[in-house]
Design goal:
Arc Repressor Mutant, subunit A; about 230 residues; alpha/beta
């Protein structure tokens, strides 16, 4: 399949995506969907997390561009959740999006805590899958409707901890609440009536106070500790 960038020399660089999926038919199908869409390119497809960790490490070490990894959870050998945790530790800037058949609370919560930026079910239509990849790149946290409902229920059912509230200011809590609700910087800025730079400043402050390094980690910690 030709590189999408070659179709239009003036087009922005294509989003580079890696796939981690053990079923060959699904892996090949996802690759065809990604390579068949303008502005997207599949740069690697792996059947196990062990091979993905090695090959993705090689790609990034060689400074080859890679934006998002689309990851199944139920993999042979190392689980997708453990792989997400390792990928996030080794490559903090790499965005990780779950694509799985599992929609139970435990796996959803563990995947988000491990560093996933979104959680989709495999019945997601191809167009929505592509939109979700773009949404992740834009700072969003795409989730299938069923998953989003479970996350909201998890959030509602958490008991407030007795420990400190991390000394978040009221405005920082409002920003964190918008992140939990799935907003990106741009939509959060519109919601609050401030600039994107202002939102970015407050998000950095939230990250520092929560001692996290990504939106998904901040959301997971907010849910776990009922901070908003």
């Amino acid at each position: 399949m030709p590189n999408p960038d070659a179709k239009n020399p003036t087009a922005p660089p294509a989003m580079r995506v890696a796939i981690v999926e053990d079923r060959t038919d699904i892996r090949d199908g996802l690759g065809q969907i990604i390579n068949g869409a303008d502005g997207y390119e599949c740069v690697g497809a792996y059947g196990t997390m062990e091979s993905a960790l090695v090959e993705i490490g090689k790609l990034l070490a060689a400074r080859s561009p890679l934006d998002v990894a689309l990851i199944d959870i139920g993999l042979p050998g190392m689980s997708g959740i453990e792989g997400i945790r390792l990928l996030k530790e080794r490559h903090p800037q790499l965005l990780l999006l779950v694509l799985t058949v599992f929609d139970d609370d435990t796996r959803i919560f563990e995947a988000l805590c491990a560093g996933a930026s979104g959680y989709l079910l495999k019945k997601t239509p191809p167009q929505r899958l592509l939109e979700s990849l773009r949404e992740v790149m834009d700072g969003g946290a795409p989730m299938s409707p069923e998953v989003a409902r479970r996350v909201i229920n998890l959030f509602r059912n958490f008991t407030p901890p007795t420990q400190a509230d991390y000394e978040l200011t009221p405005h920082e809590k409002r920003v964190l609440k918008l992140l939990v609700e799935g907003h990106n910087y741009k939509t959060a800025a519109i919601e609050l009536g401030v600039s994107v730079n202002t939102v970015s400043f407050h998000v950095r402050r939230v990250y520092e106070k929560l001692q996290v390094h990504s939106k998904s980690e901040a959301v997971a910690k907010a849910l776990k500790n009922n901070l908003v």
